[in-house]
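Re-run with default settings, no changes from the original entry. Doing this only to confirm the output is reproducible before filing.
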Amino acid sequence: MPLDILAPKEEDIQKMLSAQCHIGTRNSDHMMEEYIWRRRQDGIHVINIGKTWEKLMLAARILTAIENPKDIIAISARPYGQRAVLKFAHYTSAVAIAGRFTPGTFTNQITKQFREPRILVITDPRTDSQAVAEASYVNLPVIAFCDSDSPLRHVDVAIPANNKGKLSIGLLYWLLAREILRMRGTIARHSPWDVPVDLFFYRDPEELEKAEEAQAFAAEGDAGWNAAAGEAAPKEQPYSEPGAMAGFGAPAAPAA
């Protein structure tokens, strides 16, 4: 039985359900069967979200035991997880490898990117298979987010969850980072974390460009309208001022 202090709150479960952390794929690996709750009529496997939370707490306890946070490397070759690993590394003082993983990073000492971490956090064992394989060569423990069809070869701690959705990946890294900081004593357990989960979500560059263009266009339109209004609008004069009605009187009589 897990400790009561590590038990999930209702709002945490609601977030995980809203982000569809429990939605798997149509295929399933035989080693992931113990984490699958059932299969829907459309063939989608549903992951047991209670097992997801238990493995998140286990992973947080393992990562908290690492004395130097720089010995933790979070890896994501999947675009949806690159922003999440960067934010995770930022708030937990770990190291992130976002994008393509250079072969030989853990095995070839000649390369400039050579590193000797103590533990890895993997977003997807299938996409990040090169990092998992090299970790097995140098005896590195691996914590991985695993979907219903993910291979568990060389994975030491599998966190069953949806690792293909951008909301799911961001929320999982946010929950893991929050729990690590709570176990370290950096933040209080009974107070909410002031970092919004939106920071961990993937953002489409095209959507960001469109939003920036829309904001710039709106700002230019407002500035132009204000400038035009300031130049074209004449100063209003009350009718009580002398000369305010000049030009509107009766026409002058012609000279004799």
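Strands lie at 36-39, 45-47, 72-76, 95-98, 119-122, 142-146, 157-160. The helical segments are 10-18, 49-64, 79-92, 129-137, 166-184, 205-232.
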